[in-house]
Amino acid sequence: MNNNSSLSHRGQEPEKGILYLVGTPIGNLSDISLRALNILKNVSLVACEDTRQTKKIMTKYGISNTLMSFNQSNAIKKIPQVIKLLKESNAVALVSDAGMPSICDPGEELAREAKLNEIEIICIPGASALLTALVSSGYPSSKFIFEGFLPKKGLLRKKLLLEISQNKKTTIFFEAPHRLKKTLDELKEFCGGTREITVTKELTKKFEKHIGSNIDEVITYFEKEEVLGEFTIVLKGINSDSKDEMNKTILKEELYELTNAGLSLSAASKYLAKKNNISKSIIYNLSKSNKII
User: Fold this and answer.
1) CA-based diameter of the chain, in Å?
2) How far apart are CA 148 and CA 143, in angstroms?
3) Residue 185 sits in the same domain as residue 280
4) Do 135 and 122 have their domain in common?
5) Ramachandran region of residue 63, left (φ > 0), alpha (ψ -120 to 50) or beta?
6) Does residue 253 have a pLDDT over 90?
7) What are the angstrom distances between the C-alpha of 201 and each of 78, 132, 177, 207, 231?
8) Angle between helices 180-191 and 154-165 (to 10 degrees)
């Protein structure tokens, strides 16, 4: 069997009527594949989150092609146009500003619509901030949870932080610079200051950094440093033998659910104390010290 070409079963790329999801660099423009460059050069249209960002890549590699703005604000309007082009046997590439399209961007909606219209989708793999941060963290990486961006506020945010606090698997998420300090403070409230964490910024760029070994250390670091750049946070899961920490986390979650359902803090503490055969004051103080209520 001849394995000289991985594309021998498909033919020359790009093929007509196919939507190509193309991974692009997350910082260093050298992190792009020859296959991705070929697609960007030869498709009928490149739909991009920000045409200015995509032009940087194309200019560096001497590529000229038709670009279409495709982002969160115009995706609903643009999706029918892209589907129409694909049905007319045009090959279309979709790229995000950085990394893999469809991860925390409207490419997800375009891919879903393409599937509904029986249009074939091919991914041209490339750099990914979440995987780059994960494998360089040193934390368990065979199984992990990716949360994208956390909810900005409210009950959904608190509930997700509670879930994250009791994850046994490594958790990864993105955070904007203007919310980073608040998120770190909340992680300390829900997970404790000694939980292992790595905060990465500017991955693959000149000022790439991997900050901290635990939450307290990272908070201290950013008390002295200006918060700039794009951040990916990697939080180590709780150890399977950390029963006391797990029990506290479960108690906090149950207390949160009960008070959110309408019980007073006193009544909820009394119920959980009886259920778990512990002092009511332990649960009451736990809620106050961790600012759950």
Assistant:
1) 73
2) 16
3) no
4) no
5) beta
6) no
7) 32, 11, 10, 8, 5
8) 50
The domain that contains 69 carries what CATH number? 3.40.1010.10
Confidence of residue 261 (pLDDT cuts 50, 70, 90): confident
116 in any annotated domain: yes
* Distance from C-alpha of 288 to C-alpha of 111, rounded to nearest angstrom: 46
Model confidence, pTM: 0.80
**Are 231 and 248 found together in one domain?**
no
CB distance 26 to 99 below 8 Å: yes
Q: How confident is the model at residue 289 (pLDDT cuts 50, 70, 90)?
A: low
Which DSSP category does 24 fall into? B
Joined together, the tokens standing for residue 137 give 């963290």
- Assess if residue 11 is contained within a domain: no
Taking the CA of residue 124 as centre, how many other CA atoms within 13 Å lie in the half-sphere pointing to its CB? 27
Name the nearest CA neighbour of 93 among 60, 68, 129: 68
Give CA 245 to chain center in angstroms: 26
Same-domain check for residues 171 and 219: yes
In a domain, 12, yes or no: no
Determine the pLDDT at residue 134.
Answer: 97
**Residue 119 shares a structural domain with residue 139:** no
Stronger pLDDT, 257 or 160, i.e. the higher one: 160
255 Cβ neighbours under 8 A, 6+ residues apart? 265, 268, 269, 272, 283, 286, 287, 292, 293
Question: Based on the structure, what is the number of domains in the chain?
Answer: 3
**45 plus 135 within the same structural domain:** no
**d(C-alpha 86, C-alpha 114), whole Å:** 9
Its domain, for residue 183, covers 130-235
- CA–CA gap between residue 242 and residue 166 (Å, rounded): 10
Whether residues 138 and 200 fall in one domain:
yes
User: Would you call 94 helix, strand, or coil by DSSP?
Assistant: strand
DSSP three-state, residue 9: coil
